[in-house]
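Fold this sequence, please.
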Amino acid sequence: MTDGRQGQRRWSRVVLKMSGEALGSAASDETIDSSVVDRIAAEIAEAAASGAEIGVVIGGGNIWRGTTGAADGMDRASSDHMGMLGTIINGLALQDALERHGQPTRVQSAIEMSAVCEPYIRRRAIRHLEKGRVVVFAAGMGQPFFTTDTPAALRAAEIGAGAVLKGTSVDGIYTADPNKDPTATRLDTVTFDDALRDDLRVMDLTAFTLCKENKIPILVFDVMTPGNIVRAVAGETLGTLVT
């Protein structure tokens, strides 16, 4: 839920969506940089300690992208399944870091892998959240041909999250690509309809439609800046809010 005032947004339950690349290191070319994962885990643990219930969806692009394999001639379904397994690896890395910070965490996978994580069960996930545990939703939806945006939106709807917090490498949504257009300006807020009309590409279309139909706002923010995860969960004004 949120009180709707600028600078006073606060959701009691959220889904944090990050790309797999957020766990890596451009400086050292590491697929999973332990120092980066530790920083992200510390922020999530701090946000959870404030009373927020947090679900996390991480991509697997730092390990494997389904579209990359398909572009090289691999069967798309097989390539996407490889990407799903990458999200489980990332989820386990984040779980380990979170629990080293004293934050109880569960990884739930859409692909059953009982030796390393729980199967995704909606009611069990909600119960974990109610008990103060962070839940990492891995393996997407268990189906190929979807980006991890879609399971983030779907899980948010299923667990009754107040918002999807999409952590990216940029500080919000711009009127144009700021890397190509020096006149591009960042938007503080934008409606779902305007984002569609202007083709702002907030999330993939399936995920965006799920959020729009279920009235789940999307906060797009820079997850690479230290402290921003805590700020986003706390409802401070940053990034761009799609509502």
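Residues 76-100 form the longest helix (25 residues). The CA atoms of residues 164 and 218 lie 5 Å apart.
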